[in-house]
Fold this protein.
Amino acid sequence: MKTESDDALAIHQVAERLTKAHPQLDTALVKKSVQTAYEELRYARVRTYLPILMELRAKDLLPPDEQTERRT
């Protein structure tokens, strides 16, 4: 069974992957989107896919690439 520490590790790993994939975004924004995704999905019965579902949802919450590219 998954514990809170497993969830915290998954949140950290997803945030790290997204930060590396989108270096032009503010790290706090990425972390917030991952946390929001986790909050939306944390009561899922099947937790095997929680990290990938969090990552996909967090990507949806981030601004589109074309907007972030204009800021740099």
The CA atoms of residues 10 and 51 lie 6 Å apart. The radius of gyration is 13 Å.
